[in-house]
Structures are given as C-alpha cells and as structure tokens.
Amino acid sequence: MISYLFLAFSSYLVYTLVNRVISLRRNIALANAWGLPYVVLPLQEVGIIRSALVGLFVLPFLRLFPFTENWIWPKFMDPFTHWRYLRKYISNFGDYYVTLSPNSFHFASINAEINAQIANRRTDFEKPVEIYKIVNVFGRNTLSSDGPDWKRQRKIISPGFSERNNARVWELGLSQGQKMLEYWASKEGSSVIEMNVGNTALDTATLALHIICGAGFGIPQIWPNEDESALGDKKWAGLNTKKPAEGHKLTFKESLVSATSPQIIWLGIFPEWVLRKSPFKVHQKLLAARDDCMFYFKELIEQKRRYRRLGHEQDATDLISPLVKASDDAELVKAEGKGASQDEGLTEDEITGNTFVIMFAGHETTANVLHFSFLFLAINLAAQRHLQSDIDDIVGTRPSSSWSYQVDMRNLFNSMVGGVLHETLRIIPPVVHVPKINRGGLKQLSVDGKTISIPGNGTYIHLESTTLHRSRRYYPYSPSKVTDCSDDLDDFVPERWLQKTPNPPPEEMSNKQVDGLEVASFEVHGSLFRPIKGAYMPFSEGPRACPGRRFAEVEVTAVLASVFKQYSIELDVRMWVSDEELDKMSKEQKRDVYAKAQDRARKLIRGSQMMFTLKIEGDQVPVRFVKRGKERFADLEE
Ligand code: HEM
C-alpha cells in the first residue's frame, strides 16, 4: 500500500516538475521572441497578502545563506525591489524588462513613453482588481472595480472633487497646520518657542485624518488639547466627540485609525466568520473597530440624507454628499418607473465602500508626504531657508487666516512650497508602483521609435515610480552634494523643480474639464518643471489617475506654508549632545553633530518599509520645531 502511495506521489511530483519546466521554457521563448530583456525567478507573487508572504518568509530565508547575497534573482523576487535597491540592479536591463517564472510573466516599465500609453489605454491594460479585494471590507468601491462598474462609480464620486472642495481643503489645511503647532506647544517639555516632536508621522496622520473628515465628510475634528466646545453646533456623538456614541467602544476617529491599520490584512486572509471565532484579541479588536466604523459611516450617510431633505444640498462641499445624491436620484427614477436606475446610482454597499476608500486612499498618502517633507527639510536646512524666503515673499506679513485660495495657493504652489511637495513625491512616492494587467491578446507599444509587444492572457504590468523618478532621462540633475554619485537624483533637491519661464497650459487644461474635474487654477500657467507624460507617476496617469490629486496638493501646500511661515524644523541632536553642551560648541563641532543626525535620518528614511504606503518602522527621527529666529543650527546651511 505504502509503495503505491509513494509511486503516486512521485509520479505527481515528476508530472508537476516537467510541466513547470515546459512552461518556463515557453515563457523564456516568448521573451526572446519579443526581444524583451528578462530575469528568471522560481516564483513571483502579486497582491498585498501574497507578496507580503514572500517579503516576510521567502526572502529572509534566502538571506540566511550568505552565498545568495550576490544572486540577482532574489532581488527581483522582492515585490518592492525598485524601492529597496533603487537603480542598482534595474540599470542592467534598460527601461523595461520581464520577470518570469514557470507560472507567471510580468512586465516592468520605467519608461515614460510606455507608461503614458499603458496608463491611457484603459481597456487594453486593465486594473488587476483582484489584488485590491482587501479594500472591499466596507463594500464595493471605485478603487477595486473595473469596466462599466468602475466607470459608473467614478462618474459619481468625481464631481465631489471640485474647486469648492479644494477651497475647503485650503482653509482646513491652514487652520489644521496651526492647530498641530498649538498641540505640540501644549505638550510637556515644549513651548510656543520650541516644540519637541519624537515622531512627526503620528501627528501628520492625525492632521490628515482631520482634513479628510472635515473636507471629505463634513465632520470637523479636534486635537487632544482642544475642548469639544470648539466644535460649536457641529458636535455629533461619537463622530467627533471625545467619547464614543452610546453602545460603541470606539469613536469614529479611533475606529477609522484601526480600520485603516495594517491589521486590516487579517480580513483579507480569513473569512469574517473565522475571525469572529478566533481566540486572538487582535482579531476581536479589529472586528469591533470594523463594526463601529460601519456604524459611523451609516450615521454619516443618514446625516447627509437628512441634510438633503432639509434642502441644504447646495451648501454641501464634502465628498460624500454626491454619493448619497446619486443613490437617492436613482431610487427616485426607479420609483417613478423610469427604469435603469442601477446604471446610474450607487447601492448602499457601494456608498459605504466608497466612503471608506476615499478615507483610506486620501488619508495615509497625504500624511506621509507631509511627514517626509518635514524630515527632508530638517535634513536640508538650505532648502528650508529658501522655502521660508519664498513663503515670506508671497504672503508677506499677512496672517494665514487671510491667505486666499485663488491667489496665494497658486503662487505658493508655483514656488519652493510646490518644489518640496513634488520632490518628496518624486523621491518617496507613497504608492511605489501602479499595477496593470493585459487580460486580452498581444498588445503593441511604441518606444523610442520601435514597436514592442506585450503578451496577453494575464500578463501583470508594473509601472515602477521609484526608479522612474530617478531617471536621468526625465529629470534635471547635477552631481550629488551628499554622496559621490555623479547625479543628485537620490537626494532631496526641491530647487530642481523651479524654472524661470512659465509653462504653457497643458493640452488637457485648455478644455474646461480634466477627468471630469474642474480646471485647477493653480496649475494653469504654472512655472514648476513639468516632466514629460508618463515620467512622474505618484498619482498615476490617465483615466484611472488619482481623483484626490488636487485635494492632496492643496492640503500639503497649505500645511507647509502655514507651519514654515512661523517655525523652522531642526533635527533633534540630544541623542549625541545635551542642549547645554551644544550651546558651548563651535560652528565646526555643531556641523559634525548635525551631520551625524542627518546621516541617521537619511538611513532611517531609506529603510522605510511598505505597509500599504512607505513608512519608517521602529526607530524614528526626532525633530524640533522652533520659532523662526531661534534656530540652533541657522549658521550651518550648506
Ligand atoms: C499624496 C497623496 C496621494 C497619492 C500619492 C495618491 C496616489 C494614488 C494613486 C497612485 C492611485 C491609483 C492607484 C492604482 O491605480 O492602483 C490613486 C487612486 C485613488 N486615490 Fe489617491 N493619492 C493621494 C491622495 C488622495 C486623496 C487625498 C484622495 C481622496 C480624498 C484620494 C483618493 C483616491 C481614490 C478614490 C482612488 C481610486 C480611483 C479609481 O480607481 O478610480 N487619493 N491615488
């Protein structure tokens, strides 16, 4: 009996092995036939969970064997190889290449011409929605849909991203920037002159959450040092009070924080009924947060409905009211017997799904840009001084409460403030690559005057932003002042975005609408360097580009300008010397100690890990915000 079992098992193994060898040879032949440079891998995975498993188990296992250090293929098995190794290994292959294994054929591009074609041919190159299932925990949504389903949802959410909404983001960005400073000043050991902040990521996350709640949902939020009376008549139990609504464990803010944490991955691994029976606290806490969050979403949606019924619809500038309106209008059409409402509205499940996705996609991304901008400016004091001088030139001595969206936003965006925003997104984009899939037949693309073919039948495509954004082909550069590299494309140099002559308005801006959105006035006749199409991809491009791009740009511009108008940021060097010791130091000694802090901060930023977006895990970079004029390292500017 045992020998029969053994025979059956060995036959199965041999069959599988032979099959794999045949498909690998076929994939290699395909790559050769189409002249695509390739790397062979034993396996490659896509999707948040599967690629996390490779990153957490397979690669660390290989690293246990020192002889694998010089092997190239494990580097390409890393789902985030472009961030991890930047240009190091990719440069062997040129602007595009294929990674293939017995059961997969993936195409990666760091070429602007290719990216622009792929991103704009939506039906040829679809979104691999199966890898976004995890964001369906609150219902179906635009991020995880494709085809007509996506088109319908996108048409409904887009009008919310209007100039009226951007203006609201502007006001909130300015006021929340101030409130974050007040919160820091209120903490023990800090004052309005000098604030110690151990981890800016936590507070930029709170700030971004407040802005998405305020401008996205119409629910103002308060900082821990603020009193609920600051909410005036906009105080709603649980939605923005310090205590949860009756019968709930968490407030809206707390439940949002949990529901968007990496723990959410459990809901993608196990069905809900399994998690409900799980003895682990982490699973029970996650489900409780999910349930509370769903309760608050429903409350919020009901609130928008009531508001509409009271006839206040015209005043609504948030992103959720258009979803509710579309669903109510479709219901009305249905009730009147005029038919096909499902082609126009959203189901209740889609309203909660999209509410969550707007929050999820818009919160952490923007918070990260602010966090890394702060750190880069603390490292690069000369750039910070240039930023402050531009802010002073634009807003003078006017208080931030009087800065206008129409004029000041445009001017700040086209100055070093916009330079810092673009440079941070260039170096460390929160979304490191844009995935696509070719489900159909062979597709042709033109590149550098040649035609290349992309095989079909489920070829995954990765448009890799981190390496693309470091290409000498697309970005102005000079020799690095930080390393011995002959270009500074790995360094934070926001000045590279400033140019003397304004750009002509881009083609699509001359139409009244961009992707269904109103023209954003601050980009028309902008003077910042404008990379060619497909070369700058933090927000993706084409019909599936981020609808929240302007929301994020306005938010970051407002917060940076309001903070740096009054304060400077410096790395906290107390890990090496006390304040008293520092006061007695010569300029050279101060330069040395600051260099240590810069070096440590650069290393920690480079070590950022992908947890939905790039984040510094573990040790953080402590900083100090000091009133302008009170800087300790003002004389060190490079
Ligand atoms: C710096 C901040 C941001 C970055 C870097 C960013 C980046 C992106 C990228 C790359 C995509 C395309 C993803 C893909 O195709 O796989 C995307 C989609 C999306 N983003 Fe953003 N985003 C940002 C801010 C925002 C904000 C503030 C909002 C909302 C308030 C938002 C809402 C969305 C939504 C709803 C989608 C899905 C669109 C669709 O598939 O139709 N994003 N974002």
From TrEMBL:
It comes from the Eukaryota. Heme binds at C546. Keywords: Heme, Iron, Metal-binding, Monooxygenase, Oxidoreductase. Its cofactor is heme. SUPFAM superfamilies: Cytochrome P450 (SSF48264). The keyword Oxidoreductase applies. One of its GO terms (molecular function) is iron ion binding. Belongs to the cytochrome P450 family. PANTHER family: CYTOCHROME P450 (PTHR24305), CYTOCHROME P450 12A4, MITOCHONDRIAL-RELATED (PTHR24305:SF166). This is Cytochrome P450 monooxygenase-like protein. It comes from Hyaloscypha hepaticicola. The lineage of its organism: Eukaryota, Fungi, Dikarya, Ascomycota, Pezizomycotina.
